Amino acid sequence: MEFTIQQQRAKKALNAVQALRVTLNIEKQKEFISYANSLPAMIHMNGLGQAMAFYKMKGKEPGAYAELYNLVSDWLCRTGQPYQGKQDVLTGITQCDMHQYQLAQAETLVFMSWVKKFAKAFLAEEGQ
Fold first, then answer.
1. What average pLDDT does range 22-29 have in this prediction?
2. For 86-103, what is the mean pLDDT?
3. What is the DSSP string of 60-127?
4. Are 32 and 64 in contact (CB under 8 A)?
5. pLDDT, tens digit, for every residue of 100-116?
6. Are residues 119 and 33 in contact, defined by beta-carbon separation less than 8 angstroms?
7. The domain 28-122 is classified under which CATH number: 1.10.520.30, 1.10.630.10, 1.10.150.20, 2.60.40.2150?
8. Helix axes 64-76, 48-58, angle to 10 degrees
9. In this structure, are residues 115 and 107 in contact, taking their beta carbons and an 8 Å threshold?
10. Where is 25: in which H helix or E strand?
11. 74 to each of 27, 79, 124, how far by Cα in Å?
């Protein structure tokens, strides 16, 4: 059975978010939702490289920033994605050309729309 790219994005995002329900406590889940919502805006304002470098810096300790960095990195480095075969997204950004960078940035924005929706649907929000 073959899946569309949208189905693949949705499946990866859903699996990741559902796993976070187990691994992150309620406060970290709220942080994840907040950071997932702000990542696309940060990418628009600063570019994928700067945004991912910021999330990597903030994600030195386990938590929402690290989970988001790893999720985006895993997605962009998998088969069929712009940084296929690279160690992580920052390695891909620094070793690939501008065309791949633009593809990776656009792909991240589309992928994050699924992550945001599933995070709001399945993780704890403010007031809960």
1. 94
2. 97
3. TSSSHHHHHHHHHHHHHTSTTSTTTT-SSHHHHHHHS-HHHHHHHHHHHHHHHHHHHHHHHHHS--TT
4. yes
5. 999 999 999 999 999 99
6. yes
7. 1.10.520.30
8. 140
9. no
10. none
11. 24, 10, 24
Each residue's pLDDT tens digit, 32-83: 999 999 999 999 999 999 999 999 999 998 999 999 999 999 999 999 999 9
Domain boundaries, the chain: 28-122
Place of tokens 């600063």: 46
Instruction: Collect all residues with Cβ–Cβ distance below 8 Å to 122 and sequence separation of at least 6.
Output: 17, 18, 21
Reported as type and span, the H/E element at residue 47 is: none
